[in-house]
Amino acid sequence: MRLLLVEDEEKTSAYIKRALKELGFNVDVSVDGLDGLHLAMEHDYEAIILDVMLPGLDGYSILDRLRGHKNTPVIMLSAKGSVEERVKGLRHGADDYLCKPFSLSELVARIQALLRRQQVDGAEMTHLSIHDLQLDLIARKVTRGNDRLELTAKEFALLSLLVRNQGKILSKMMIAEQIWDMNFDSDTNVVEVAVKRLRSKVDLPYTEKLIHTVRGMGYVLETRD
Question: DSSP 3-state helix, strand, coil percentages of the chain (rounded to 5)?
Answer without folding.
Answer: 40, 20, 35
